[in-house]
Design goal:
The complex is a heterodimer. Chain A is of the alpha+beta class. Chain A is built from five helices and six strands; from the N terminus they run E-H-H-E-E-H-E-H-H-E-E. In chain A, strand 2 and strand 3 form a beta hairpin. Chain B is of the alpha+beta class. Chain B is built from three helices and eight strands; from the N terminus they run E-E-E-E-H-H-H-E-E-E-E. In chain B, the strands form three sheets. Chain B has a four-stranded antiparallel sheet with strand order 3-4-5-6. Chain B has a two-stranded antiparallel sheet with strand order 1-2. In chain B, helix 2 packs across helix 3. Classes of the chains: A alpha+beta, B alpha+beta. Strand 1 of chain A pairs antiparallel with strand 7 of chain B.
């Protein structure tokens, strides 16, 4: 039998689930509900893997990726490498609603977000800067570079390509809290 | 990362993801989350799926699209999720990845790839049966 409505999400992010559910109960569309649910995780920085202040890149900056998809119309809005805007899923929704495109990235996505009225602010926090500083002090380990010099397994960049590319190399580390 | 699927009373479906990606990534790196068919996929005539894990690997297999297409051909959500994971596992046995699947009648399931330190995957469900947000755990395959 049919058991609807349904809200389901990855990981144990219950506040996001509850928010989406009650949005539906209040008459919101599934599209609005799913956006609200994900926005809660962005505000709450769910397990450090969502929203501002988590998982800095090699330069210490936090960047965000998000997507929203309407299963009725197959419309999609997405942003990648979004900088200085906290509400990434909101910007993804704006891509869907205010462009004929699907996916905007990087600085241009941030400029688009600003044009659409989203606030521009740093995504760094004391925690993310501490994480970054520790990484620098550990000779930039772990490190996603390969086939470069200096050796990325023990030296920070800048890096240049190394002549000769080794065949497929096993990924050398795993951080179960660092997920997409 | 959060990946979420919402299905309304009459089967209208939406999916979304949001993440800050991998720690210490090379600047400019984007994971699977914002890629339709990879991080999530939704088709109200069938169902939806959302994946999580190592986005650099997950995005190579479009697991969410695959799971939805399997459900389109009648596969149950859990089996669809498992097949999507097996497709990745075949090439990357050590891949960190999980996926949730839901069909448009409210059936749902999940799967994950069993690796050291990751043997169960939690996901959260709210439907009329649970009447509250309930965290489920699935054993990884």
């Amino acid at each position: 039998g049919t058991i609807l409505p349904l809200v389901i999400n990855t990981w144990g992010f219950e506040n996001a689930t509850v928010t989406a559910w009650y949005a539906l109960q209040a008459g919101a569309s599934p599209l609005d509900a799913v956006q609200k649910g994900c926005s809660v995780c962005e505000e709450e920085q769910c397990d450090g893997s969502v929203g501002y202040g988590g998982h800095p890149d090699e330069t210490g900056e936090t960047t965000l990726d998000a997507l929203i998809m309407n299963g009725d119309t197959m419309e999609v809005g997405a942003v990648g490498d979004l900088r200085r805007v906290k509400n990434a899923v909101g910007v993804a929704r704006a891509v869907m609603e205010h462009t004929q495109h699907t996916f905007l990235v990087g600085e241009s996505a941030s400029a688009f977000a600003q044009d659409m009225g989203f606030k521009s602010e740093s995504l760094s926090t004391n925690d993310s800067m501490k994480t970054f500083t520790q990484w620098l002090s550990q000779k930039c380990q772990p490190n996603y570079r390969k086939n470069v010099f200096p050796d990325p397994s023990g030296t920070c960049g800048p890096y240049k390509p190394r002549a000769g590319v080794k065949p497929r190399q096993k990924r050398g580390f795993l951080n179960l809290r660092s997920h997409d | 990362t959060i990946g979420m699927i919402v299905i309304g009373q009459s089967g209208q479906l939406a999916a979304a993801t949001s993440t800050n990606g991998a720690s210490y990534k090379v600047p400019g790196r984007v994971g699977d989350s914002p890629i339709a068919g990879a991080g999530a996929y939704a088709d109200s005539s069938v169902g939806g799926a959302a994946a999580t894990g190592d986005g650099d690997l997950m995005m190579r297999f479009l697991p969410s699209f695959l799971a939805v297409e399997l459900m389109r051909s009648g596969t149950e959500p859990t089996a669809a999720c498992q097949t999507a994971i097996y497709r990745i596992k075949k090439h990357y046995p050590e891949a960190f990845g999980a996926i949730i699947c839901a069909n448009n009648t409210g059936g749902f399931g999940a799967a994950c790839n069993k690796i050291s330190g990751f043997t169960q995957f939690p996901f959260t469900v709210f439907n009329p049966q649970s009447n509250k947000a309930q965290v489920h755990k699935v054993d990884c395959v």
